[in-house]
Design goal:
The chain is built from 3 helices and 16 strands. It has about 220 residues and is of the alpha+beta class. The longest helix is centred in the last third of the chain and has 26 residues, at about 190-215.
């Protein structure tokens, strides 16, 4: 009977992820509907980004200056030029804003970018899987239901502009989809010989044109 009462009191928290725009440069939109009122707590989504996708820390700093997105990126130094097979996972703490249309709803978007992948054999696409994020509440003054929320082992501030540590709480949630699939176009491995030959031919032709122009119009003492 106690278990049934707890389940009835703790309504499911629902999480939805969407990738907006097309191509290698997208916006990741995260929407959360809490099972209970946040009561003035900070709401965040803690997500792990696989090596195939990343957030540019310089771009993130720019959008945060314009109050478009609030987030903490770990680590905060990232090689944005590295391909997928040389990159590492990233941890993103995305702070959500209240949705004016729903008292228990929160949302936020962050620009993300896809990394280049190795050429594949027999397919022109690689899959990048984004798992459903962990929903966190950072409460400095409010009290949450102990049956629904439990302390989370997260070392992070209450907000992106407040360095004071905050006690975060987490809850089990029901993702609208277990994971989000991003399809990335890749080259075909069987075309590697043709691509290398055309690249060498183009490079040699361009070098020849530059050398011819230098000999024709250059002034040599």
């Amino acid at each position: 009977c106690v278990t049934l009462d707890v389940q009835a009191a703790c309504r499911d928290t629902t999480v939805t992820q969407e990738l907006l725009k097309e191509g290698f440069h997208r916006d990741l939109l995260v929407k959360v509907e809490l099972g209970e009122d946040a009561g003035g707590c900070a709401v965040a989504a803690r997500m792990r980004l696989p090596p195939g996708i990343y957030v540019d820390p310089y771009e993130l700093a720019t959008v945060q200056q314009h109050n478009l997105t609030k987030a903490v990126l770990i680590p905060d130094v990232i090689d944005v030029e590295a391909p997928e097979y040389l990159a590492r996972d990233l941890l993103l703490l995305l702070f959500l804003e209240p949705d004016v249309c729903c008292s228990r709803c929160f949302r936020a978007a962050v620009p993300v970018h896809t990394r280049y992948h190795r050429p594949a054999e027999g397919t022109q696409e690689a899959l990048v899987v984004l798992e459903s994020p962990e929903v966190l509440l950072g409460c400095c003054h409010s009290h949450l239901s102990a049956e629904c929320w439990e302390p989370a082992e997260v070392d992070a501030p209450c907000s992106s502009d407040n360095t004071c540590p905050c006690q975060w709480h987490s809850t089990k949630h029901r993702p609208a989809y277990e994971e989000l699939m991003l399809r990335v176009p890749v080259g075909l491995r069987e075309h590697s010989t043709l691509v290398c030959a055309l690249t060498l031919l183009t490079t040699g032709l361009c070098c020849g044109l530059i050398l011819a122009a230098a000999c024709k119009y250059g002034h040599f003492s």
